[in-house]
Amino acid sequence: MYKITEIEGGVCASEGFYADGVSAGLKKNNALDMAFIYSQNECEVASTFTTNKMFAAPIKHFRAKGEFKTNFVLINSKNANAMTGQAGVKDIEEVLEAFSSTCQENLINPLMSSTGVIGVRLPKQKIIKGTKLFDLRARNPKNASEAIMTTDTFSKSIALRVELQNGDCFHIGAMAKGAGMINPAMATMLCFITTDADASKAQMQEILDEVTVHTFNAISVDGDTSTNDTVILMSNAKSKAFDKEAFKEALFKVMHFLALEMVRDGEGATKLVTYKVTGAKDNKEAEVVAKALSDSLLVKTALFGEDPNWGRIASTVGASGVEAYEETLSISFNELCVYHKGELLFNEAMEEKAAAIMKLARFSISCDLGISNGSFTAYGCDLGYEYVKINADYRT
Amino acid sequence: MYKITEIEGGVCASEGFYADGVSAGLKKNNALDMAFIYSQNECEVASTFTTNKMFAAPIKHFRAKGEFKTNFVLINSKNANAMTGQAGVKDIEEVLEAFSSTCQENLINPLMSSTGVIGVRLPKQKIIKGTKLFDLRARNPKNASEAIMTTDTFSKSIALRVELQNGDCFHIGAMAKGAGMINPAMATMLCFITTDADASKAQMQEILDEVTVHTFNAISVDGDTSTNDTVILMSNAKSKAFDKEAFKEALFKVMHFLALEMVRDGEGATKLVTYKVTGAKDNKEAEVVAKALSDSLLVKTALFGEDPNWGRIASTVGASGVEAYEETLSISFNELCVYHKGELLFNEAMEEKAAAIMKLARFSISCDLGISNGSFTAYGCDLGYEYVKINADYRT
Hints:
The structure is a homodimer.
Chain A: E1 2-6, E2 17-22, E3 34-49, H1 57-64, E4 70-76, H2 85-102, E5 111-114, H3 124-131, H4 141-147, E6 156-164, E7 169-177, E8 190-195, H5 201-214, E9 219-220, E10 230-235, H6 244-264, E11 272-280, H7 283-295, H8 297-304, H9 310-319, E12 330-333, E13 336-340, E14 343-344, H10 348-358, E15 362-368, E16 374-381, H11 385-392
Parallel strand pairs in A: 4-5, 8-10, 9-16, 11-15
Antiparallel strand pairs in A: 1-6, 2-3, 3-4, 3-10, 6-7, 7-8, 11-16, 12-13, 12-15, 13-14
């Protein structure tokens, strides 16, 4: 038994963690564009990165380290440091060395994480100048979460306090940026999670992998997978407390919340839709269908048009490549079943009801394939004019 | 040796074929909405259909026939007769029987093909009434090609005359409808091809399958695959002439032309882009990359914004799942190489040149993966506000 409570403090809610955001002039109008997370105690690290073969320099830099502990992450927006080759990795090393040599604290295997435009070298001097503004004893998690935003319209963070039955207590705090490119296999999303739980690297990695499948890897904004997707989970063990089940549930809550916040803030998105697929041959096939639905342009535009076009849902199920039959399929909008195993239930009265559901900011579309017990739930948004506008003019 | 010449006449250019379009009141404002193709002589038939598991009633009806010859196809727009179960097949039988029993000509295994909204039963009485307007001795191929349009903004047809060295001559004529949902694995596209070449069913099917891969299956408008995709190729052998190579080349020309017409007329499309992928591990991996590029929302919106954002091209290559390396990849817009094997070539002058290329109505994006000899060429379009508008309001 344990108790999970939402608290203030974002990434600084975990004991011993510091964070802040500063403006290094990467963004216009002195907006915050560089952040750090720092812990005096060194941390065990678990991580998940993009599956994109063109993974960015920060990921190369991380992977080249092998096994390590760290106590510092530097994050910048506006420049992804992707497609920059080994020079991009060297830029990271130079930036981190410059900061290490001037800062008062002892940085252990400092890390860097970047998001922004692909194919442009890091503005090293600006960034080094920016690090001089860092106060490693500052606790401004809100600034940090704002500094990592790109096309996000709001910053995203959460913190939980977990009380165990024996009175022990640990925390998990996190911040993330999403918007655009959010896809089942992650996307230009960065997520930094701090904890003072006394979890080993292996424990954290196992739980992180499990939870990622049903959170960050279950969301889609536009089906593209970026070069920079990163989730970093750092534990400084300061609480000396740990319980695997409690940790897993809390981490799921943190990542699920942030994943849905990302979808809700998808570029131009006005709706958050849950795709519940059941009755598939197996869980894998259910996942394929759920992601096909959340990725389908035709479904997304029908959502934007608030058009209960269940035919597009059926067509997308059929096009997804998994085992599916017209005669066993059922489709519902929230609790309203609009197609049931070959029966055309749709009529004017039902269309009115379905259209009312589609006007909601949040609803679910359920597909029961009627074959076996495979199930998966994915999350997506609509696609409207704003998406096109944002992405047609991204670099300008 | 042979000579291929473009001629007038669409599906009626092949000797012995008749076609027309009429208005049955399915579309508003007395627009043409039903068409037929008829040949006095019975025809061998080759065909390709959607891979969508929810394939529509006309495809079920076709497949239930097994081996057969035919001389008549009825086509309607506005209603796809999809997700209508066995009732949908029975509707087709009733419509075709009603017309057979009243028409003066001898219909042999008549076929039906439909496009439009999914999940609504065929308006049988309207369609039967519409067939009464058919004059099977009419030759109005333009009317026929207009009647099958849905969101198409122009009708699509072509005809070729093929002269063989021995003086023999045969024809291939075709009409198609595309727009929206056009995807690598075909989409709500219908294509009807007539020929008077003396080709056997087996010869036609083999050639049709080969040509489809590099034409209709190499185009993408929005990555969705419809319930109704159909290509039907009918030969009445009236010319008594045939040459395999000449037939294949002519069929390729016909289908390639129509495929590009479909992309050009993709919903809201303003640009036709050729994606040339070379240097992949094999042809299959090159195909995966080419289609990933033509399907990518981020690439499509960058095209619409005329933004030479080569980083998104690189990211999409990396996300496609095939073998690819930053250090061996090269990317060009037309002949302008913007990224070469790890070298960042892009600067302001080059950006200006690249932006000028992107303003063209037609250009190519080439990706050399630099690994081996696999190659594939796909075709796509941009995605702009009009696409969203058309698809948000499709049913209204």
